[in-house]
């Protein structure tokens, strides 16, 4: 039995636009039916890591996340950042047309060198940026050795 389907050029253009845009998204929350799943977008916060003679430092961008939704742990030289950015809906009377900000749970783990001192870790959170400092052990720090003169 044949059925007649009404052609809607606007719907086809929207579907085409969504397919093109999804090709350029770093992580697409596309469902099987072609609509976006706004609850399952995966994301990874960007970080900077550097060191000096006293320790290692990590800075992670976490805009829109409350301090209570961020966790920093260290176990066996594995530093792990985890948390969640919650998608805030605007209620039933609005429909989202574009939702480009990533949200959902995230986890980032970093293996630290053996010269870290697990007792010297501090984490601060300010203006959506997490700053973690990890001190180096005293034995790993460079030190100058005095030269003695015999005579």
Report on the architecture of this protein.
With 151 residues, the chain is mainly β. 10% of the residues lie in helices and 35% in strands. It is built from one helix and seven strands, in the order αβββββββ. The chain has one helix at residues 9-23; strands at 47-51, 55-61, 70-75, 78-85, 104-111, 116-126, 129-136. A four-stranded antiparallel beta sheet has the order 1-2-7-6, with no helix packed on it. The protein has a three-stranded antiparallel beta sheet with strand order 3-4-5, with no helix packed on it. It is elongated, with a radius of gyration of 25 Å. Mean pLDDT is 80; it is low at 27-41.
Give a short overview:
By secondary structure, the chain is mainly β.
Structural class by SSE content: mainly beta
How large a portion of the residues is in β-strands, by DSSP E?
A: 35-45%
Low-pLDDT segments: 27-41
Output the number of helix runs: 1
Radius of gyration (Å): 25 Å
Strand order of the largest sheet: 1-2-7-6
N→C terminal distance = 111 Å
Oligomer class: single chain
- Helical residues, percent: under 10%
Described by the principal axes of the CA atoms, the overall outline is elongated
Largest sheet: 4 strands, antiparallel
Element order, helices and strands? Answer: HEEEEEEE
């Amino acid at each position: 039995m044949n059925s007649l389907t009404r052609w809607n050029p606007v719907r086809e253009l929207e579907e085409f636009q969504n397919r093109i845009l999804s090709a350029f998204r770093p992580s697409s929350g596309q469902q099987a039916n072609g609509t976006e799943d706004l609850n399952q977008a995966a994301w990874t916060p960007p970080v900077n890591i550097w060191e000096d003679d006293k320790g290692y430092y990590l800075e992670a961008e976490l805009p829109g996340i409350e301090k209570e939704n961020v966790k920093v742990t260290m176990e066996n030289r594995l530093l792990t950042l985890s948390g969640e950015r919650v998608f805030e809906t605007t209620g039933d009377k609005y429909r989202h047309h574009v939702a480009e900000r990533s949200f959902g749970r995230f986890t980032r783990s970093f293996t630290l060198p053996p010269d870290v001192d697990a007792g010297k870790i501090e984490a601060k959170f300010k203006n959506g940026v997490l700053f973690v400092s990890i001190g180096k052990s005293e034995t790993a720090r460079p030190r100058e050795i005095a030269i003695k003169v015999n005579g």
